[in-house]
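tool_call: predict_structure(chain=1)
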Amino acid sequence: MNDDARPASEPQGIPPHSGAADEVNRQDPSRRSVLWTTAGVAGAGLGLGALGGGTASAAGASAPEAVAAAEAVGAAPPRQGRTMAGVPFERRSTVRVGIIGLGNRGDSMIDLFLAVPGVQVKAVCDTVRDKAEKAAKKVTAAGQPAPAVYAKDEHDYENLCKRGDIDFVYVATPWELHFPMAKTAMLNGKHVGVECPIAMRLDELWQLVDLSERTRRHCMQLENCCYGKNEMRVLRMAHAGLFGELQHGAGAYNHDLRELMFDPDYYEGPWRRLWHTRLRGDLYPNHGFGPVANYMDVNRGDRVVSISSFGTTPLGLAAYRKEHMEPGDPSWKESYIGADRTISIVQTAKGRVIRLEHDVSSPHPYSRINSLGGTRGVFEDYPERIYLEPTNTNHQWDDFKKYAEWDHWLWKEHANPPGGHGGMDYIMVFRLMQCMRLGLVPDFDVYDAAVWTAPVPLSHLSIKAKGAPLPIPDFTRGEWKKARSGMDSEKPAE
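tool_result:
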């Protein structure tokens, strides 16, 4: 029997905390309308229609307007609960999981939840019944009781979240659904983990922070790249001082997705391509931002304070469409405004600099960049290489494999993990479920989720304002000044 079966009491809905957010908060599009419409998103998710929507005028907002907009929606509202920084999970013998979204990502991740000891999949949900039933068969094939199946309509996930036998809800759906699903899970007393990005608007990020604090439920961005083998090795080396005083880092999502975005079966809708008709900025900052933020102890002794973004002209998707799509294809009705490549400069309170890049519309080998530099040397990935003084003094890159002794204990314990992305997906699921079973503090929390996602709306507005630096909210409300543990964890006793 589970050690914590009772859900938290349900608080009332969270009202908008800023008048500037009212216009965005009125929007409540259905899944179908969001997937197929090419209408703009007012105010880049900032709730400021006056600054323009998805069509994004060529002139863009002025720098003073952009700064005022970011400050209006980004200002910290009064805290409605207590901080979730350093708050452990309730200890339990078994973690009972509900999974929402069983497309490409969800269908692969359910295998990993089933592979982790002490985890039961109690319910599955997708608007496509065949996908939900396929997932249910995986559960029974793994020797677990048949899960409940929710596939009635686009709101059936709400019924999954109401169940009393679920501790954790995993969300792997199109981006615009992440916020309402995470909100519903917490309001029903569930901890929730969401694929990237956790929301698309700044006011939504604040609502998730407030809800997590009020409901005492963790809301986490499940950033698998933080659990990459190289990322975790660099993390431990950075915290051991091998790079000296940290000065700069870089992360990216440079991944040619043109063929997949025009594949009618891969991205159902096609929801992902349509975001390129709505926002100019970095649509997917988390994979690059999360690891570098961990290296620098962002929210744990440092914090990010501003972002300045620039974007190229949006040529890639239109060029691919012209070459590959038939004249009658629905994509010909779309007008792309998303920059082919965005470059953002993020500054921290300690004077460090983080460069973020996003490019899914141009020919480019896969790269997350993943670099870190300090007063004693630098690491760069893709390909992996390192230069550290006093070991290296000849201006030649060294072999990163020589530093295997610094591997995180998770990778030493799971040398050949199952699953995709080189095993980082399994490491992430294993560690999260371990924290829940043992009653540990999670490796990251709602404040990390909000920070890693904030570049989505802010980069859009900064690009429109010709690169104006915009403030990044302090989602921790001052807790960042306190050093605390993060992903550089010690192996717990079972």
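agent: Residues 1-45, 47-59 have pLDDT under 50 and may be disordered. Proceeding to next step.
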